[in-house]
Write a structure and sequence with these properties.
This protein is α+β, with helices and mostly antiparallel strands. The chain is 30% helix and 20% strand.
Amino acid sequence: MTESYVYAAVRTPFGRFSGALAGVRPDDLAALVVNGATAKAPALDPEEIDEVVWGNANGAGEDNRNVGRMAVLLAGLPTSVPATTVNRLCGSSLDAALIASRAIETGDADIVLTGGVESMTRAPWVLPKPERAHPAGDVTAVSTTLGWRLVNARMPKEWTVSLGEANEQLADRFGIPRERQDEFAARSHDLADRAWTDGFYEDLVMPVAVDGEGGALTRDEGIRPGSTPGKLAALKPSFRTHGTITAGNASPLSDGASAVLLGSEAAATRIGTAPLARVAGRGTFALDPQDFGFAPVEAANRALKSAGITWSDVSAVELNEAFAVQSLACVDAWGIDPSIVNAKGGAIALGHPLGASGGRLIGTLAHRLKESGERWGVAAICIGVGQALAVVLENVTGTSR
């Protein structure tokens, strides 16, 4: 078997719900980063892309009918480039990259473009189709933006609680108080703002035109410089009257897209650039749906075992911050130094457009390892309905740690 490598990564700035990207279709966002990723491969003939694997969690609106294929067509790639769309909810674009890495390692493909997109703003309301014609009663439009909808009555009630309530249960289970969650959230905003100020994201994020007069979104819209635990403490709980989770210590609804170009070692000449990192290990895990926030613990442990390393070897972690409480629960369970986690900010500040977040994690992790010169990193993400994914990246020019 051959090895698989990350060659390039790019994403849009992540926009707030009903924010600057509200007027941009998700298929157009996807096409933008398809072009952004191929632009980072100076020698690549797009005809040589064996496959496009794209992540998307919704698929109920303008992202319907295989948005990966739509992105290829809208980006102007040759019509001979095939594409598929995968849906593992929040893990969709990380799943896309893992699928690509397996295809490369088994020899089924040599160059694969992956990514994901979500416009939570533009997610439509849907009406269930009536079981008989001309029903006399009212029908209810259901939002497809986030969470359970049109739930099967056979599902146990404890599985279908809201995402927020599920994480309040995690707070109870692990005794994680509101104060720790607010501290974690304030740190996310501070580190994200610092990373942007220091120029870390300049090579990772491409601007998105947002009006007809030359305006563009150039920076993640959800970052709140100057956030402090004291300011966040003033926010009311969102899911329980006396709960711990607020709009300030959970990831916001967001819009955005990301892309990651993967290839074999032999593909370097045709891509025209050296790889950023090697895909060294993968891990998946599932548990009770309401415990989804804790699922990254075992997914990452399995990815480390696959890579043949331990947590003592790891220098950088990118953990998607769906909620501060589940992030803290995972970091506590791993027993790692919290300072290596999300050192460039996390989803609480940057945003969490569901289908795009996995690609963001991989791109950020690869660039963190390149910046530091350190060798091993882990990216992990929790997934609604009780799943998680993780990947280990190796900086091929990195130090022993």
